[in-house]
Each structure stands twice: as structure tokens, then as C-alpha cells.
Design goal:
273 residues, alpha/beta, 7-stranded mixed β-barrel, 8 helices, 23% strand, elongated
Amino acid sequence: MNLTVKVHPVVLFQIVDAFERRNADSQRVIGTLLGSVEKGVVEVTNCFCVPHKETDDQVEAEISYALDVYDLNRRVNSSESIVGWWATGNEVTNHSSVIHEYYARECNNPIHLTLDTSLQGGKMGLKAYVCISLGIPNGVQGCMFTPIKVDTVCYEPEVIALKLSQKTIGVRSRQVEPMMDLAQISEASEKLLGLLNHVLQYVEDVLNEKQQPDNAVGRALLDLIHSVPNMTHDQFATMFNSNVKDLLMVVTLSQLIKTQLQLNERLTQLSTT
């Protein structure tokens, strides 16, 4: 089946949080996936945990609880619908087909998402499945979980939150303070300046025949230059001053423009050689 699943980071955080808060006798945690489906892409933007009990012989889930939570969520965000269900672990279990039958009644062609919270292989594996019916007409029927493509995607606010969370790595307290707006601009400008210097060094090496040119890279750089508004240093400074009261970043941004102009000049030389 030609389906692609795109999962947002908040979903993964919620699954891990539910796993950490599970009952002591629970081996895994399950829950409902919320999102939307459009043109063969299932975008998972939210989820919630569904309490359940699981033994070797049977599985019991609190369906009424799941319906109540879904109804409450619909009142807050009516655009999110049930698209499938999730479970912690690195594989599909014997009870997965039973749980999948319930979600098949709640939505069309539900997906099943697994997140390996046991960190087998040194990473938190993420997999997605669809259930394909098997059997013969008027005979014994069964199903098989087939893997499908799954990716993680982020909204811009999620990217900012993830970058802030990454700063807790190596910090003993596991806490960081959100940066002020000006500090974020300064940090982003420094990173952008470093990338521009890296690109400029590549162009210099190609012009000096220290590195073989790459046509794909050249086209990408040309598209990048054409996408930047053509303005002088003074025009940019005027625009910046009219929108930002704090002028502490002018020097850094001026350096960026200067580097950009140098890059334009070098690319022009490269295109003529």
C-alpha cells in the first residue's frame, strides 16, 4: 500500500511520557493516534494513552475512556481525527490484530505505530504498519501487518523547542532557560555566518582548482543567490533599523551581507570561467 506516515515530535514525546508513567506491572503502553490523511500521507500530530491490561491469553482496553478523551480533543481541535494507534515496543505482538480491529471500526485503514522504548540497537526505533487482510473467500480469514514508510516532520515552533531540548544534553540539571529573542537572533546569525563562510570557502577552492566543481552544488548555490533580494548594504541597514529597535545586531548582520556580496562576486566569476 502506497502510504507514508509523517510523525510530529510532540507525538513521540507523549508516547515516551506515557511509557515512563506506566503501571509497574505493564510491559507496554498503547494509545490512539490523531491527525489527518491527505493524498496518501498520514500526518500524525497528536496522540493519547489508552489504559489497558494485557496477559498471554487476552487483552482488555478501556474503550469508553478512549472515546471520552477523543470527544474532548475534538472540542479543542476539530481538525484532528483518529488515524490509527500506537504501542511501545520493537515488534508487533499476538494481541496487535485484536486491538487493530477496534481501530478499523473507528477510521478507514488505520495505521499502527511502534516506538522502541527499550532502545534496542542503541536507538529509539520508529516503525509504521498497515494491516492487510489475508485468507480465502468464505474461508478462514487473517491479517498481516506490512511495514510502510515513516518520517518525522516538524513545524517551526517544534524545531525551536527541539533545539532548546538538545541543549540539555550534557547538562547535569537537565534544565535550560529559554533564550531571549535577541539572543536567538544572535545565535542564528552566527550559525548562518558560519554556513556562508563554508560556502564561500568551497567557491574559493573551486576557483583556485583545489576542488573539483559539482554541477548540482553549483545549481543549488545559484538558486540560493537568486532567491535573496538584491539590495545594497545601505538599503538592508535602512530596512533593518526601521523594524528592529535594538541595534546590537547590526554589525553581525552587516558581516552577513558583506559575505553574501563576496559570494555573489565569486559565483559570477565561477559562471564565467
